[in-house]
Structure formats: C-alpha cells, structure tokens
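Incident review: delayed structure delivery

Summary: a single-chain prediction request sat in the queue longer than the usual turnaround. Root cause was a stuck worker, restarted by the on-call engineer. No data loss occurred. The affected request and its eventual output are reproduced below so the record is complete for anyone auditing the incident later.

Affected input:
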Amino acid sequence: MFKTKRSRFFLALLGLFALIQLVPYGRDHKNPPVSAEPRWDSPETRRLAERTCFNCHSNKTMWPWYSHIAPFSWLVQHDVEEARSLLNFSEWDRPQEEAEEAGDMVREGKMPLWYYVLGHPEADLSSEEKNELIRGLQATIGGHEREGEEGELE
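Output delivered after worker restart:
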C-alpha cells in the first residue's frame, strides 16, 4: 500500500508538471529591438555590463534552457520584465529612472543578484572588475557617491 501511495503521488506530481507547461506566461522569449544604448565611457565598461547586466537589463537577453520550462520560465520572465522596467541599456531613448543608482547597486552587492550569479558564473566579478564596472557606470550614466562612502570595494 505504501508503494502505491508513493507511486500515485509521484504520478500526480508528474501530471501537474506536465499541465503547467500549458501555461503560456514565460514562453515569449523574443527580445524587443535595441533602440538606443548609452554612450559608454569605454569598451571595457560595456563589456563588463554586457557580462553582468545585459541578460536582465537589456533587450539582448540570452534565454537559458530552463527559461523554457515552467515554473522556472515564469520566474525568469518576471525577473527580466521587472529588470527592464527599472533599467534597460537597450532603450536609452526613454527615461531610465533607476540608471544613476546602477553603480551603487553593484558597490552594495545588490547587483547582480546572488541567485543570478549561481546560474551565470561569468557574472561573478573580481573586486578589480567590480571597481572598474562601478567607475564605468558612473562615468557613463552618472550617479554620485554618497557622502562618506568610498568609490571602490575593498
């Protein structure tokens, strides 16, 4: 009887997994066109931003294999949509209200998100690379250091 209940549970779980694949949200992996990028202060800043930020904060998202499988597709689509609404390096011709905070977010360790780095080890920057990205973001899009804060990571 125990094996039967366990088998039924796993069969029901498998059926539920198959059913949620029919939910369309998170399946539209078409990137909108790039309308304008910022005037980068250097190719290195752009390269670092592309490596760490573009998958969520641009229209150049590289959709990983798991972004096609629910429920992961829902989470990935939601995160990309939210990130693009806050800062989108591919739509620089529209207001970017959060842009000036980009360097501070990197400095404070809030970006890139820890769980993003788990799946994207290329986004795990060394201290030197983080400092270069922070400096480059501030030179490219502005922002200011808050009084009493150092500009670099230790």
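Verification: The chain has a mean pLDDT of 87.
Action items: add queue-age alerting; document worker restart procedure.
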